[in-house]
Amino acid sequence: MNQQLSGKWESFINQINVHCINYLSFIADILHNKLNAKTVQLEKINDLISKITTLIAEI
After folding, report:
1. Can you give the pLDDT at residue 39?
2. pLDDT tens across 13-45, in order?
């Protein structure tokens, strides 16, 4: 996969799938336990995704 930073947004967002989110959640849990950092709850992430999707649709 080759990603261009000047590419269209769809070329970025289309690469993010359920597996990516699961891996990122897993890594966040590891960092939380290792670094005692806070993780973002899945509900907040889904809410942010919904808001961003709405904003993109308005553009």
Report:
1. 63
2. 788 888 888 999 999 888 878 776 566 788 888
Q: ∠ at Cα 11 (4, 15), nearest 5°?
A: 110
**Domains: count for the chain:** 1
Instruction: Establish if 3 belongs to a structural domain.
Output: no
pTM of the predicted model, to two decimals?
0.40
Distance, in Å, from the CA atom of 27 to the CA atom of 37, rounded to the nearest integer, reads 12
Whether 49 maps to a domain, the answer reads: yes
Whether 2 is covered by a domain: the verdict is no
8 CB contacts (<8 Å, ≥6 apart)?
none
Tokens (6 digits) for 14: 């289309």
| Phi, psi (deg, nearest 5) at residue 5 | -65, -25
Q: Which domain holds residue 54?
A: 9-58
